Amino acid sequence: MKTEDQRLSREQVGSIVTMLRLTTDRELNCSECLQHVGEYAETRLAGKPLDEILAGIEQHLELCPECREEFLALQQILKAGL
Ligand SMILES: [Zn+2]
Q1: With contact defined as beta carbons under 8 Å apart, do 60 and 67 qualify?
Q2: Buried b (16+ CB within 10 A) or exposed e, 44-53
Q3: How far, in Å, from the CA of 7 to the mean position of ligand 1?
Q4: Is the alpha carbon torsion for 49, 54, 59, 61 positive or negative?
Q5: Ligand 1 center from residue 14 Cα (angstroms)
Q6: The domain containing residue 55 runs over which residues?
Q7: DSSP run (H or E) holding 1
């Protein structure tokens, strides 16, 4: 079987690249999330309003189980410290 035909057209590749770029622009990646997750946990515990970055963290936590676990662990530590 020939695999040549299954190659993506230039146009398809272009739209995939654009899509990926939009995704990385709009959503935080895990390392960015982990940089701010401590601040996020503290802000939540203090009942303060979330700024733009922290709102992004919240969104990422909903989508990313790994970071959520990190957040929950941090939250436990912070609560224990109060
Ligand atoms: Zn993540």
Answers
A1: yes
A2: beeeeeeeee
A3: 31
A4: negative
A5: 26
A6: 29-82
A7: none
Q: Span 52-72, mean pLDDT?
A: 95
Determine the distance separating the centroid of ligand 1 and the alpha carbon of 4, expressed in angstroms.
36
Whether 22 is covered by a domain: the verdict is no
Q: What is the pLDDT of residues 72-82, one digit of tens each?
A: 999 999 989 86
Q: How far apart are CA 35 and CA 79, in angstroms?
A: 19
**pLDDT per position as a tens digit, 1-23:** 665 667 888 888 888 777 666 55
What interhelical angle do 52-63 and 65-81 show, nearest 10?
120
The domain total for the chain is 1
